[in-house]
């Protein structure tokens, strides 16, 4: 099976889990998002998320679970280097590039597509 198919199936499975939580457990979207972010952090803490990224590529880095992975990963790296203060700064340092890119791309898209409202 090709890498694109694996990424599609893994990313789709993560989305299916979120949709099941929305439909059958009757959680709000905010609760589901929090669960998926926390799941990514827990899986990274158990050492399981990096092998998932190696296996699935974008299928594991694009969904919201990857944000939890980035938060945990950044906090842990900085805590090892700088102690307790690194725990706090690492949460902001590693994921900031992705958040900044999302804000910049959203701004440029709003210039091109003229949002309503």
UniProtKB/TrEMBL annotation:
Domain of life (superkingdom): Bacteria
Organism: Aneurinibacillus migulanus (Bacillus migulanus)
Protein name: Stage V sporulation protein AE
Transmembrane segments: 6-25, 32-49, 55-72, 84-113
Record-linked PANTHER family: STAGE V SPORULATION PROTEIN AC-RELATED, STAGE V SPORULATION PROTEIN AEB
Keywords per UniProt: Membrane, Transmembrane, Transmembrane helix
NCBIfam families, sorted: spore_V_AE
